[in-house]
Automatic annotation (TrEMBL):
Species of the source: Kitasatospora indigofera
One matching Pfam family: PP-binding
Cited SUPFAM superfamilies: ACP-like
InterPro entries: ACP-like_sf, PP-bd_ACP
Protein name as annotated: Carrier domain-containing protein
Signal peptide: none
Residues in Carrier domain copies: 26-65
Length: 90
């Protein structure tokens, strides 16, 4: 899965989270927008998002290996997945 595909999958997932919580999903979501600051992800829903990322990428994410800030943005999540894949192939 390339970066743009991951971003599209995450945007769709986040739109679903927003709908569940009665929040409005922004018309534009940039890769560096903070998902927590926008109210799209909370301390409760971040686990669902991580499980979703693992599911769509097939890449297990070890939370002990990553700082929480890695999950703040779409770009951060992509970087995390890319680094995890690099570690797996090494």
């Amino acid at each position: 899965m390339d970066r743009d595909d991951l971003y599209a999958q995450l945007r769709e997932f986040l739109a679903g989270l927003a709908a569940e919580s009665g929040r409005e999903f922004p018309d534009r979501l940039d890769p560096d927008d903070n998902l927590f600051d926008l109210g799209l992800v909370t301390s409760f829903s971040v686990i669902r998002m991580i499980l979703f990322v693992e599911d769509v990428t097939g890449c297990p994410i070890d939370l002990a290996d990553h700082e929480p800030q890695a999950f703040y943005t779409l770009a951060g999540i992509h970087t995390l997945v890319a680094s995890q894949r690099q570690e797996e192939s090494a």
